[in-house]
Design goal:
Low-confidence stretches: 5-11
Strand content: under 5%
Distance between the termini: 64 Å
Shape: elongated
Helix content: over 70%
Number of strands: 0
Length: 215
C-alpha cells in the first residue's frame, strides 16, 4: 500500500514537472513570435538566434534565482517558476525587439562609416560595435528607468500584491529587488548574446557591408 502511494506521488510529481516545462516552452515560442513581430527592419531567419538567446539567458537566471536565492521545494515549484518566467520574458521581449530594431537602423545610418572602417582594415565586429553598444543601451533604457523609479515614485506590482495580501513589506521589497535584478541581468545578457549572434548578418563572407535588401 505504501509503495503504491509512493509511486502515485512520484507520477504526480513528474507530471507537475513536465507541465511546468511544457508551459515554459510555450511561453518561449510565444516570446520569439512577439519579438519577430515587434522588431522593425530585421531580416528573415532570426527566430533561431532569438530563441537560443532567450533559452540560455532565461535558464541561467532561473537557476540562479531559484537555487541560490529563493530555494523553493521542489525546485520546479509552479507557483514560483511560472510567474517568474513570465516576468523575466515579458521585460526581455520588449528589450530584444527594441535592441534589434535599433541595431539594423543604426547600421543603415552608419553605412558610409562602416564602409570606410572596413576599407581601412577594421574587422566586421569593430565596424558593428558602435551599433551594438547603441542597441544594448536603448534596450536597457526601460529597465533602468523602472529601477530608478521603483520604491520612490512607483510601487511595483509584485511588491504591492504581497503588501495588500498582508505580507511583510520588507520581505516584499526584498523579493521585488531580486526580481528587478534578475530582469536587468537577463535583459543585458540576452541583448548582448543576440547581438553577438546576428551582427554578421550585416556583412558578407568577405567582410563587406551587406545592404538590407540583400540580407
Amino acid at each position: 500500500m505504501i509503495e503504491r502511494i509512493r509511486k502515485k506521488y512520484a507520477m504526480t510529481e513528474k507530471g507537475a514537472r513536465d507541465y511546468v516545462f511544457a508551459l515554459m516552452a510555450v511561453m518561449l515560442v510565444a516570446a520569439v513570435q512577439i519579438v519577430m513581430s515587434r522588431a522593425r527592419g530585421i531580416p528573415k531567419g532570426l527566430a533561431g538566434p532569438i530563441f537560443l538567446s532567450l533559452v540560455i539567458t532565461m535558464l541561467l537566471m532561473l537557476a540562479l534565482v531559484t537555487e541560490l536565492i529563493v530555494r523553493p521545494h521542489p525546485w520546479y515549484a509552479p507557483q514560483l517558476v511560472v510567474p517568474l518566467t513570465g516576468m523575466l520574458l515579458g521585460n526581455t521581449v520588449s528589450a530584444l525587439a527594441v535592441g534589434l530594431s535599433r541595431f539594423y537602423e543604426s547600421m543603415e545610418e552608419r553605412r558610409d562609416e562602416v564602409d570606410m572602417m572596413l576599407a581601412l582594415g577594421a574587422t566586421a565586429w569593430e565596424s558593428a560595435r558602435p551599433s551594438v553598444i547603441s542597441s544594448i543601451r536603448l534596450g536597457l533604457l526601460p529597465t533602468t528607468a523602472s529601477l530608478a523609479s521603483s520604491g520612490i515614485v512607483t510601487i511595483p506590482g509584485m511588491m504591492a500584491g504581497q503588501v495588500i495580501a498582508g505580507g511583510d513589506p520588507l520581505n516584499a521589497a526584498k523579493y521585488q529587488f531580486v526580481v528587478f535584478g534578475a530582469i536587468a541581468a537577463l535583459t543585458l545578457l540576452a541583448d548582448g548574446l543576440i547581438m553577438v549572434m546576428i551582427y554578421r548578418t550585416c556583412f558578407t563572407a568577405d567582410d563587406q557591408y551587406r545592404p538590407p535588401e540583400a540580407r
